[in-house]
Amino acid sequence: MASNDSNPIDVDENTPLLLQKEPEAGKYGNSVLYLALLCGFLVSVSFGVTQVPMIYVFRLMTCDAYYQTHPEPANGLERCEVREIEAQTARAVSLLAASTTLFGVANLFVTGWTIKKFGVKTALLISVFWPAVRLAVQNLGVMAGGNQGILTLQLSQIITVLGGPAGYLLSLNSYVSEITESSSRTGALGKLQGCSFLGTASAYLAGGLISDYFGILAPFQVTLLLFSASCIYIFICLPRIPPSKEVPSQLSGGLAKFLGPLMIFKPQKWTLQNGQLRFEYGTMLLGAGVFLGVLATGYIPILLQMYGTDIFHFGTTENGYLISLNSFMRGLFLTLVFPKIISVGRTWMVDKARSKDAETGAAQTFRALDVPGNINRAAPIEPLDDQEEPIEPSDSSDERETFDFDLMYTRYSLLADALLTGAASFVSKGWQMYLISALLPFAAGTGAAAKGTILQMCSASERADALSAISLIEMVAQLTTSTCICHCGPPELVANSL
Q1: Dihedral through CA 273, CA 279, CA 285, CA 287, nearest 10?
Q2: What is the pLDDT of residues 326-384, one digit of tens each?
Q3: Rounded to whole angstroms, how far apart are CA atoms 105 and 475?
């Protein structure tokens, strides 16, 4: 541990963990942010068109494979309405989701390395190109059908290691965090997530309609064209942001550099005014909360479709309306309401703190609200290796950042999400599925608030790692919940488990 400075101050989880000079984000202007938001919408449309048809095509292929070894049903009976087919479809879809998440975890590390090596725009372009290749393979699988088609679709997910939704979201979140000011970063990330959900909502609706009117193969062909158009848009419209030169030396080579995002959750050691050492677990606890939240509610979008299909006999159009409504409401909430809540909530926290300070006559500054102007007085963080590195002073002495309300929002949104998800177990009629689908988004924003919080705990050079770390936690939780649900069988058992 390095020796204390002459005028140390106490620090806690409200103080940024790595304080370094911030880049001039304001030079890009709002126009670039709008281009990035449009990019999020377009790419989300590309990723979402096949989601509803994917559930239906797995059901058809499982049904075809089942009757290759079983006799056809009697006249008047629904061909695919067999309990074994429903269970096999649930397992096949869950395996697809689990493999997507597993390979997506690897894609996070690959994308994080690409961002540092070649820049965020190149990483974003790569993350959109390889899904187009995957769609070409999936087109062949859908045309093959049966067990061969199921296997082809599942194996095509290996391409996700090179490029997929996880890497695209990491790249675009990193891009937005680079072009926005710190005070508006949480709201901008919420808007980006909202635009992504609006794109997903449009895609879900379009995917169901396209498959009904033009056949089950058409959505996969349309998606291939959309990914190609998205690549062209990114290449032409988004300005390039050079790679950060402030790469931490402690992760300068080998496996440690590749696995750098995991070190974000390592407890930090601080020196207090009285000379005592204190460990801060802010990032670790934040990650644990995000993990548990996704673990409890991450399977809901797929569950809504499967439950509607098997219990209320929803087709691709009904499922398209159902999941489109959910994503559309979530997108509107995150784009229009969430930034206002964050802004008003932060103002309320500031006024509350000032009122309390005026009553008590305290002279101390609001460390939870202001980044310390004299950073040279802070005790340095112990580096990850044996080298001692002082904290670099910040030139932004009047920069005001607060994540007290962001943390409060994260806590209460998780609670609201749990309550609304539990209400889904009481659904008994088809129209109630649409009601639950419309209400669930009002607990959204946990991920955006968590990302905004952790970004204020690190330096500019650590932003990609911080976003990758949160995304990794979300994906591991998604993989865990998908694996658990995979063994539950028919969807009514899943609903009862809520």
Answers
A1: 110
A2: 888 888 888 888 888 888 888 888 777 777 767 666 444 444 444 444 444 444 434 44
A3: 7
Q: Is residue 20 part of a domain?
A: no
Q: Which two tokens stand for residue 441?
A: 């988004």
CA–CA distance, 338 with 446 (Å, rounded to integer)? 10
Percent of the chain past pLDDT 90, that is, above it, reads 11
Q: What is the CATH number of the domain that holds 64?
A: 1.20.1250.20
Distance of CA 394 to the CA centre of its chain: 30
Helix (H) or strand (E) holding 179: helix 165-179
Place of tokens 């690190």: 458
Does residue 317 lie within any of the structural domains? yes
378 touches 26 (CB < 8 A)? no
User: What SS3 state is found at 398?
Assistant: coil
Query: Going by DSSP bridges, is the β-strand pair 277-280/268-271 parallel, antiparallel, or unpaired?
Result: antiparallel
Q: H or E stretch including 270?
A: strand 268-271
Give residues with Cβ within 8 angstroms of 385, minimum separation 6. Answer: 250
β-bridge mates for residue 271, sequence order: 277
Residue 483 lies in a domain: yes
DSSP 84-123: HHHHHHHHHHHHHHHHHHHHHHHHHHHHHHHHHHH-HHHH
- How far apart CA 231 and CA 360 sit, in angstroms, is 58
pLDDT tens-digit readout, 396-429: 433 344 567 888 888 888 888 888 877 777 888 8
| Alpha carbons 36 and 237: distance in angstroms, whole number | 9
Residue 369 lies in a domain: no
Q: What Cα–Cα distance (Å) separates residue 225 from each residue in 157, 195, 336?
A: 19, 20, 30
299 within 8 A of 183, measured Cβ to Cβ: no
Domain that holds residue 188: 26-244+257-267+280-361+394-497
Structural domains counted in the chain? 1
Closest CA to 90 of 478, 486, 481: 486
